[in-house]
């Protein structure tokens, strides 16, 4: 399953097929229709060929304008690259430099609190809701080929998008969390290298701990998003209908397109 799910990308990490997951009524997400990933700015010619072979003709970039302009996607000429900013300000600090980080609070637990707040904002903020409504519009209107959606690390904005899609088609909560937490496996080499550089530079322990919370997934973060859905809508399913405009008819269209 691991080999089938992961895309062999050389210029990035955490690129994977969402196929194979089973819904509560025994259906499965189709392979080769929907992919999640991180930034495409370091893609090689090999990576472009991988996207072409997978028939990925729509790429949705969840990053902020600054992120997209500073590190633009590299994608095949056959693909349509769509910028769909999810956070009006990137509070995931996914592209922060060491110098910029030092200007932030160094108190222990700063990053954890920041990420908890960010996951709540991804659910409750009208700006984010509008972006995710548009995301589902693209999914609903995709007839041929596959869609790849991504942010910088493929963890937070992409993680919420994946969770919302899974909820819509009927994947159980525990499976949603398992897929979310897999990001740490796929980003492990990159994350360990970044933390090792901090140790070699003699960075403060609180700084290293904060960076870990920015780089790694945490079940608490996603639980906070689910709690926010419960709080403002009554349940995740009600949230999809009330805030993301996913009617029963639209959900059935999604299931018809992406399940077998």
Distance between the termini: 17 Å
Major pleated sheet: 5 strands, mixed
Output the number of helix runs. Answer: 13
User: What form results from the Cα inertia axes?
Assistant: globular
Radius of gyration: 18 Å
Oligomeric state as shown: single chain
The strand count comes to: 5
Helix content: 40-55%
Query: What is the strand arrangement across the widest sheet?
Result: 1-2-5-3-4
Sheet-strand content, in percent, reads: 5-15%
The mean pLDDT is: 92
The structure class reads alpha/beta
Spans of 5+ residues with little confidence (pLDDT < 50)? none
Query: H/E order of the elements?
Result: HEEHEHEHHHEHHHHHHH
What is this structure, in a nutshell?
The chain is α/β, with parallel strands linked by helices and 260 residues long. Helix content is 54%, strand content 8%. It has helices at 2-5, 45-53, 65-70, 98-102, 110-124, 126-141, 157-169, 173-186, 188-200, 205-215, 219-233, 236-244, 248-258, and strands spanning 16-17, 34-37, 56-61, 80-83, 146-150.
